[in-house]
Amino acid sequence: MAASWPEGGGAFPGGGEGGGGGLLTVLRFVLKGKRAHFRRFYTNSSALTYPVPPPSTLLGLLGAARGLGPEFAEDLSGIYLSVRPLGGQRPLFQTVNYLFLKEGTLSELRGLYKDGRTQIPLQFLVGEEGRAVAYEVYVASHDAGLMGDLARALEAPAYPLSLGPAFALGWVEAVTLARGEVLEGWEGEGIGWWRADRLQLRNLKEPPTGVRLYRDRFPVALGPDRSPRRVEELALEVEGKPLAVAYEGLVLEVEGLEGCAVGVVRV
Questions:
Q1: CA-CA distance, 224 to 231, in Å (whole number)?
Q2: How far apart are the C-alpha atoms of 97 and 7, rounded to whole Å?
Q3: Residue 247: which residues within 8 A CB-CB, separation 6 or more?
Q4: How would you classify the pairing of strands 89-99 and 170-192?
Q5: CA dihedral sign, ordered 162, 142, 173, 233
Q6: Cα dist. 15→10, 27, 104, 178, 265 in Å?
Q7: What would the pLDDT profile of 229-250 be if each residue is shown by its tens digit?
Q8: Is 232 helix (H, G, I), strand (E, B) or coil?
Q9: Within the chain, how many helices (H) and strands (E) appear?
Q10: Is 239 helix (H, G, I), strand (E, B) or coil?
Q11: Helix (H) or strand (E) holding 152
């Protein structure tokens, strides 16, 4: 059953007007799909994937849900984003044939160019034991109306949602709204994204069994030609497990997640 979201321009029930008083409205949802591919922007001859959708991919997904065009980046600027995997996932390589485009002619687009096609190894993410891949996504803003609009859009997206390429279609479940607050600095348990240069693991000498940290350069914002305009080095636990951290960056405290902060990136 669909939840009741605040109308555009309103405040979340119990929160300040437009998120005033330091309170934000936090949108949480679970993004799922049969397969995913979030291409690392710096790979060329092979197409490797990040373990989670980068900030730029999440921005595009939210824009697609609202039916926005290229203006989505400006409309959604200033929001806070975070994501973590839910459950196990594993990489799967498959070689695909891409069209070889040199001049962009109609013959090339039809695959009739003499050199025709070029084979590229493509790395997918699939769920363990045939399950769907799943990601828990947090979106936060002082604009409660915007968060309500996004919640409604995710339940009935204007454009199909995808987990990377168009053929990796996805869907959204468990859309909820809560209140939250952004803090600078956190010491304790946390989930989500962490800026690598501001993160220290409290139990680095004896990390919990099975904890694995992934660190990479993620595109946060894209330019008009879809080239990375802003890149940040972020870290996350590859299976979404909570980490014991001492962190000097931005975190989100969310109602219902007492004792556990969410590392966020502002876009």
A1: 15
A2: 46
A3: 185, 186, 187, 190, 194, 198, 199, 200, 261, 263
A4: unpaired
A5: positive
A6: 10, 14, 53, 9, 22
A7: 999 999 999 999 999 999 999 9
A8: strand
A9: 4, 14
A10: coil
A11: helix 144-155
